[in-house]
């Protein structure tokens, strides 16, 4: 760099060395400078410097062009000088002018390429006023190249200054609320300008005001494609109201789910006020349910969201959601994700369908109810309007709104097989009920066809019928194509023609031209389980259908082409039973519901590129995890409801073997063992069989172990008289033991539980191998595996179903006592002395929902217990003292936990698997 600068541009200028060193240092610091100041500011400075350099060159050439003259000179002497690098160079040329006044010596530092020789005669253009350096040849022309180069530099400078100028003008127009945090952001506009650069700053993500960050992510166009924004939004509904310590842990986990382990580590390293110095790091995590299109979650329902509709309230886009399980109807601001007022009042029964409309200029909610009535709520106040609309004799499963001759109408469909039309202003029935449906009416929508409002009705007999709302008569013949009940239905206009989209329990999605009554193209593909909820909308002026399926996916189809738009929206961990569309801040969105935890989700339907590189994992709930060693490498094993068992490298998260299709049905339990020197994994399923797999080859070992008369729910391995055995608990209330070497049963089944055996563990008590079992009969029992007899009385104390895990060899002794740890649906964790059968200390509390998994291990030389719950919490307990030793939050129900021999924590939550490293001492 220095040599080029000297020989090509600046010659012997004394400041060249300092400039080269400065450029070298800036190139090393450029990434950090970009992160600290933001790319926009760095771009502006570089463009400005480039323009100044070109301007200096242009001024020099202009001066030479205006004042210079051409002379013929003869070289009399060449003065050499040292360039400081050990090489001799030309210092100056002493010349005589043949046809003009004398010429001062011409500097040669920039003229090396001229290659003059003593005695030679040459032509040179000089500026006698000294405003420009000499140039060889005739008079120079205008600096065209420099001018062209200034165009892109000027555009770059304008782009860099646009955002600050925009914010400056905004600041003068609008006084924004202040934003204050420890990073020194004083107001919202200054914060917005700084946040673009700070968004990649882990300390900012952890400690900044969550509401201000979420508002920025929702309104700033540049934030839509940022990985950090996707990471922040992934679990913002959980950490926005939590402390910085919880936010740090969840952000680190979500960064790992998006595949950025570097960002995850930097977030984990951020200190927080009052936060614990000892923190669990995230080694890796799968990202099956992260999606850059996820906008936010609506949290408030306590049970599954069964239906959703959208509306506009006081200029804001809102969603109306209901859960027939928790018996509430709630309204949400879709921009902020916050509830609007209290749940709708006046009715404490089950609402089974909702739609929105306008009556006398006020937005209303129309609800179909379990008692067969239709109720109307005023959306601004949340109060019931008038009396219930009574007429149906069974539950109302579908409602819609329409307008006929200026009158607002409500349309309701019931399992009594009828469709009724109501005048929403008077509350009176309009005409006679629509009859003739063969079975339940589960879905309906309103549309305009040939300038007349119609109702499109999906029936349980698989047909779709169209009714004229003005005359009450059917329009054409029923639309036939589905082979079983129509569960979902929506309407829209495609290429100027009214179209219905229907989903059936026959697992097909079909389009219908309502004008002709004929199907449009082939059934929509891409949803192997069909859809159970449908809505229509528009994306970039193209009609789309949005469908929710029992596999937890949300799919979008282009209704003009019938093709899927992008990949399915992944995030729900259970079936999607409700879908609606709307527009928020000018962007098309979908609102979906269905998670068993009562969560509804908002998705941005605008096209965009995926961010991050999530690790592909399971496609359904993870039910079990275990650890083992294969070919000297520690591995984690996970079993899922997707019927597969996956083997992961414990350190890197890469698949260590091809997934095993363990059973044709759900894999319920997974344990590992060593058989004839080979690592094996044992799986159980709803089919009632136990299978053994070689972890090195992925192939089955021997025949399935059978004997249970129902699903096998739990597995544990142990050793009896030197023989490796497997103990399996089933829905039939028994525990069966097999010799792993021969595959033969060992003794008679262990009988005593009065319900499903939900968990099994093994331990050694006073030299005897024992099994500890937990059951839905709320008890835990201890069994002598040698004799097959129960030891002592059942362990009682839990209220509700019991999950049990025994202490393994490394943790079998706590201060000289073998113990068992149990967790239950009563949200407590208990420790039991296996010698006496008595509880050790008081129950361990902290969970707010049922405990679904318990494990034990050793961390920093101390035995610990780990409990995972439906509440998404993992608690770590110090076994000797019975005190809490840590708490972790996960964005999904935790159904599986395991502690590896080196103290790492393996967690199965939702569809995901994560491995966390223990805190450093």
Characterize this entry briefly:
By secondary structure, the chain is an alpha+beta fold.
What does this structure look like?
It is globular and about 85 Å long. Strand 25 and strand 26 form a beta hairpin. It is 16% helix and 39% strand. With 921 residues, the protein is an alpha+beta fold. The longest helix has 30 residues, at 144-173.
Detail the topology: elements first, then pairings.
Blueprint: H1 2-10, H2 16-37, H3 39-67, E1 69-82, E2 88-97, E3 106-107, E4 121-126, E5 135-136, H4 144-173, H5 188-198, H6 202-207, H7 210-219, H8 227-234, H9 236-239, H10 244-257, H11 261-268, E6 281-285, E7 294-298, E8 307-313, E9 316-323, E10 328-333, E11 351-359, E12 362-369, E13 374-378, E14 396-404, E15 407-414, E16 419-423, E17 441-449, E18 452-459, E19 464-468, E20 486-494, E21 497-504, E22 509-513, E23 518-519, E24 533-539, E25 542-548, E26 554-558, E27 563-564, E28 578-584, E29 587-593, E30 600-604, E31 622-630, E32 633-640, E33 644-649, E34 660-661, E35 667-675, E36 678-685, E37 690-694, E38 712-720, E39 723-730, E40 735-739, E41 757-765, E42 768-775, E43 780-784, E44 789-795, E45 802-806, E46 819-824, E47 829-833, E48 838-839, E49 851-859, E50 862-869, E51 873-878, E52 883-889, E53 894-899, E54 905-909, E55 912-917
Antiparallel strand pairs: 1-2, 1-4, 2-3, 4-5, 6-55, 7-30, 8-9, 9-10, 11-12, 12-13, 14-15, 15-16, 17-18, 18-19, 20-21, 21-22, 22-23, 24-25, 25-26, 26-27, 28-29, 29-30, 31-32, 32-33, 33-34, 35-36, 36-37, 38-39, 39-40, 41-42, 42-43, 43-44, 45-46, 46-47, 47-48, 49-50, 50-51, 51-52, 53-54, 54-55
Helix pairs in contact: 2-3, 3-4, 4-5, 10-11
């Amino acid at each position: 760099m220095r040599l080029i600068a000297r020989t090509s541009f600046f010659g012997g200028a004394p400041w060249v060395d300092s400039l080269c060193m400065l450029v070298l240092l800036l190139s090393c610091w450029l990434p950090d400078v970009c992160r600290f100041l933001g790319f926009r500011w760095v771009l502006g400075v570089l463009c400005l410097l480039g323009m100044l350099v070109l301007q200096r060159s242009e001024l020099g050439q202009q001066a030479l062009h205006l004042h210079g003259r051409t002379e013929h000179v003869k070289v009399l002497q060449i003065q050499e000088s040292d360039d400081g690098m050990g090489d001799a160079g030309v210092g100056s040329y002493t010349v005589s002018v043949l046809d003009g006044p004398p010429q001062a010596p011409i500097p040669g530092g920039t003229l090396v390429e001229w290659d003059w020789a003593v005695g030679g005669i040459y032509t040179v253009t000089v500026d006698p006023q000294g405003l420009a350096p000499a140039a060889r040849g005739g008079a120079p022309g205008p600096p065209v190249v420099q001018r062209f180069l200034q165009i892109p530099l000027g555009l770059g400078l304008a782009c860099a200054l646009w955002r600050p100028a925009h914010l400056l003008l905004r600041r003068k127009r609008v006084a924004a609320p202040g934003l204050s945090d420890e990073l020194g952001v004083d107001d919202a506009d200054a914060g917005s300008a700084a946040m673009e650069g700070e968004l990649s700053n882990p300390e900012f993500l952890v400690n900044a005001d969550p509401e201000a960050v979420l508002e920025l992510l929702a309104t700033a166009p540049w934030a839509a494609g940022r990985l950090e924004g996707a990471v922040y939004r992934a679990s913002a509904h959980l950490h926005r109201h939590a402390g910085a310590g919880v936010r740090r842990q969840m952000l680190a986990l979500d960064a790992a789910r998006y595949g950025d382990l570097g960002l995850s580590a930097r977030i984990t390293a951020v200190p927080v006020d009052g936060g614990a110095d000892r923190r669990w790091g995230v080694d890796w995590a799968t990202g099956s349910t992260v999606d850059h299109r996820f906008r936010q979650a609506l949290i408030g329902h306590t049970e599954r969201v069964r239906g959703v509709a959208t509306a506009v309230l006081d200029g804001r886009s809102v969603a109306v959601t209901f859960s027939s399980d928790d018996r509430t109807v709630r309204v949400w601001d879709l921009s902020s994700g916050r509830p609007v007022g209290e749940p709708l009042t006046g009715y404490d029964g089950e609402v089974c369908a909702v739609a929105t409309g306008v009556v006398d200029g006020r937005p209303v909610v129309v609800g179909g109810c379990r008692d067969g009535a239709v109720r109307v709520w005023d959306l601004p106040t949340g109060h019931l309007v008038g009396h219930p609309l009574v007429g149906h004799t069974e539950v109302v499963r579908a409602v819609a709104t329409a307008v006929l001759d200026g009158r607002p109408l409500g349309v309701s469909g019931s399992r009594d097989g009828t469709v009724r039309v109501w005048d929403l202003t008077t509350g009176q029935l309009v005409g006679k009920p629509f009859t003739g449906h063969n079975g339940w009416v589960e879905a309906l929508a309103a549309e305009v066809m040939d300038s007349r409002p119609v109702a499109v009705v999906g029936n349980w007999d698989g047909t779709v019928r169209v009714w004229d709302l003005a005359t009450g008569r059917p329009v054409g013949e029923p639309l036939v194509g589905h082979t079983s009940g129509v569960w979902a239905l929506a309407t829209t206009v495609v290429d100027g023609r009214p179209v219905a989209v229907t989903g059936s329990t026959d697992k097909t999605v079909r389009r219908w031209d309502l004008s002709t009554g004929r199907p449009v193209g082939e059934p929509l593909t891409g949803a192997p389980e069909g859809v159970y909820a449908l809505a229509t909308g528009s994306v970039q002026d193209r009609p789309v259908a949005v469908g929710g399926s029992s596999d937890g996916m949300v799919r979008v189809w282009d209704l003009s082409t019938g093709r899927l738009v992008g990949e399915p929206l992944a995030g729900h961990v259970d079936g999607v039973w409700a879908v609606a569309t709307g527009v928020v801040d000018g962007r098309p969105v979908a609102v979906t519901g269905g998670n068993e935890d009562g969560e509804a989700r908002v998705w941005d339907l605008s096209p965009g590129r995926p961010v991050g590189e999530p690790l592909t994992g399971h496609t359904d709930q993870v039910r079990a995890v275990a650890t083992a060693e294969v070919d000297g490498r520690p591995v984690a094993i996970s079993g899922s409801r997707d019927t597969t068992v996956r083997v992961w490298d414990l350190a890197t998260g890469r698949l260590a073997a091809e997934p095993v299709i363990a059973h044709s049905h759900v894999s319920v339990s997974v344990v590992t063992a060593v058989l004839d020197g080979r690592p094996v994994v044992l799986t159980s399923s709803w089919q009632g069989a136990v299978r053994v797999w070689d972890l090195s080859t992925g192939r089955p070992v021997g025949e399935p172990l059978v004997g249970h008369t129902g699903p096998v729910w739990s597995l544990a391995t142990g050793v009896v008289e030197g023989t490796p055995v497997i103990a399996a608990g089933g829905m039939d209330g028994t525990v069966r033991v097999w010799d792993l070497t021969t595959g033969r049963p060992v003794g008679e089944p262990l009988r005593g539980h009065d319900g499903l055996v939900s968990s099994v563990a093994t331990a050694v008590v006073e030299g005897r191998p024992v099994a500890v079992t937990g059951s839905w009969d709320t008890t835990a029992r201890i069994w002598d595996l040698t004799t097959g007899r129960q030891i002592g009385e059942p362990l009682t104390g839990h209220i509700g179903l019991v999950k049990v895990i025994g202490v393994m060899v490394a943790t079998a002794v706590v201060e000289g006592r073998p113990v068992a740890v149990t967790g239950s649906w009563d949200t407590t964790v208990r420790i039991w002395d296996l010698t006496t059968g008595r509880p050790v200390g008081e129950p361990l509390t902290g969970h707010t929902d049922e405990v679904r998994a318990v494990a034990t291990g050793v961390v920093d030389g101390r035995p610990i217990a780990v409990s995972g719950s439906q509440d998404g919490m993992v608690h770590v307990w110090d076994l000797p003292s019975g005190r809490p030793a840590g708490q972790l939050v996960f964005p999904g129900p935790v159904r599986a936990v395991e502690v590896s021999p080196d103290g790492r924590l393996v967690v199965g939550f939702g569809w995901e698997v994560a491995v966390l490293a223990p805190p450093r001492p």
